[in-house]
Structure formats: C-alpha cells, structure tokens
Amino acid sequence: MTDTPAELDVWAARLVQALGLPADFVVDVPVVLDLARDAAHGVARPAAPLTTFLVGYAAGLAGGSQVELDRAVATATALATADPE
To answer: What's the domain count of the chain?
Structure first.
C-alpha cells in the first residue's frame, strides 16, 4: 500500500498525542494497513485489529524499538500469509 488517506495521518497524529506517546513518534500507517490487510485476507477479517494490537503489544514488551516492531510485523505477516498446511 503506498497511499495513505490524509484523514488517517491526522487521526494517527491525534491518537499519538492523546495516548501520550513521544512527540517524535511517527506511525507508519501504510505498514499497519498492510499488516491488517494480510491478517484480514490470510486469516479472517476480525484478525486485522487483533493482529495489529498484538504486534504493537509484543513490540512494546520487547522494548519498543523500530527493530522490535519490524520483527513483530514480519512474524505476523509471515504467519498470516503462510499456507495453512
């Protein structure tokens, strides 16, 4: 996904502020949307919000760096898009 609707960027910025996340925190909205899409299509539609929540939670517990977030996203994407055999 390459295009992010402007309202999602605005919402993400508002939510980051309301949640008290660091001022320099930037949400990679396309990555989140791609992850949600992969979970929704590879597992089931309700898996999208569940997957994005669990990935964020796991990355946070692991330290919250970009490396931990990338690792959690890669793990969830691989699992969601794997052949269930």
So the answer is: 1
Give tens-digit pLDDT for 30-62. 999 999 999 999 999 999 999 999 999 999 999
- Which pLDDT belongs to residue 85? 65
Q: What is the pTM of this model?
A: 0.87
- Residue 64, sorted as left (phi over 0), alpha (psi -120 to 50) or beta, turns out to be left
Identity at 28, one-letter amino acid code: D
Is 1 inside a domain boundary?
no
- Residue 58's domain spans which residues? 6-81
Distance CA 77, CA 47 (A): 12
